[in-house]
């Protein structure tokens, strides 16, 4: 489903190189965790997958279901089935959460040649999925993420992901700022979306998220390259020993 080949990338503004040869293959049904110290390139990788314009690809390619993402704008990638959950979801004053969700869902349906949902159909979908995430109707009437707690912002993003039903979910430090209860609710929402036809890339610093979203494969990213790959036990090793053994390594 996702194949990253020798990906090199830098910040467009000052040409600082961040990714120095990423190779990664994620098959349908798999959950891959990417862990690493601050500054290793984890969030940069997620932004590039989603199509953020602040970065320049200098070498390599990203294939999504056999098609290069580099030829696609951010909205085209979303319509094709790629979803990025941000570490810090942005606030959009003046736009009700419910309005945002309906617009996003119908825009993707239109891009795929599907008909728009009627208001009753949309409301039923939202209410059913919101209840699973402890999201109230009052919260859905508020401007998107404005005044939301950290947990509310993350639950709102998982609701978006649940409604859009993407083929590839990229979660950029979704556990950031969550207490134990909020983490469990968010993780349960993610786990409900696990499917043989859907892949996930979970970016995190800590093992605690992976106690709830158990990965099939764990990668260690350091200095813009994957330097070690293993099973879920690798995350436990990192929790115990930290990243000191991998800082400065070039490649596995």
UniProtKB/TrEMBL annotation:
GO terms for molecular function: ATP binding; ATP hydrolysis activity. Residues 2-248 form the ABC transporter domain. The keyword Magnesium does not apply. The keyword Membrane does not apply. Keywords: ATP-binding, Nucleotide-binding. Pfam families: ABC_tran (PF00005). InterPro entries: AAA+_ATPase, ABC_transporter-like_ATP-bd, FeS-cluster_ATPase_SufC, P-loop_NTPase. It comes from the Bacteria. Belongs to the ABC transporter superfamily. Ycf16 family. This is Fe-S cluster assembly ATPase SufC. It comes from Stappia albiluteola.
């Amino acid at each position: 489903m996702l194949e990253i080949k020798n990906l090199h990338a830098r910040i467009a503004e000052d040409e600082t190189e961040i990714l120095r040869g990423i190779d990664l293959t994620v098959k349908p049904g798999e959950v891959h965790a990417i862990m690493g110290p601050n500054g290793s390139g984890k969030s940069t990788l997620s932004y590039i997958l989603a199509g953020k314009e602040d970065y320049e690809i200098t070498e390599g390619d990203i294939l999504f279901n056999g098609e290069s993402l580099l030829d696609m704008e951010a909205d085209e990638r979303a319509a094709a089935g790629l979803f990025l959950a941000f570490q810090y979801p942005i606030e959009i004053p003046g736009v009700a959460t419910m309005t945002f969700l309906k617009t996003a869902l119908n825009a993707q349906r239109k891009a795929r040649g599907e008909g728009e949902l009627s208001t009753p159909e949309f409301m039923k979908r939202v209410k059913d999925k919101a209840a699973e995430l402890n999201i109230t109707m009052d919260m859905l009437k508020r401007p998107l993420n404005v005044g939301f707690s950290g947990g509310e912002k993350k639950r709102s993003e998982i609701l978006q992901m649940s409604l859009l039903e993407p083929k590839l979910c990229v979660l950029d430090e979704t556990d950031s700022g969550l207490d134990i209860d909020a983490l469990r609710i968010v993780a349960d929402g993610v786990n409900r979306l696990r499917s043989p036809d859907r892949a996930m890339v979970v970016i995190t610093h800590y093992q605690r998220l992976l106690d709830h979203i158990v990965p099939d494969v764990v990668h260690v990213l350091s200095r813009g390259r994957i330097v070690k790959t293993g099973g879920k036990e690798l995350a436990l090793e990192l929790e115990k020993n930290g990243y000191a053994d991998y800082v400065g390594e070039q490649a596995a």
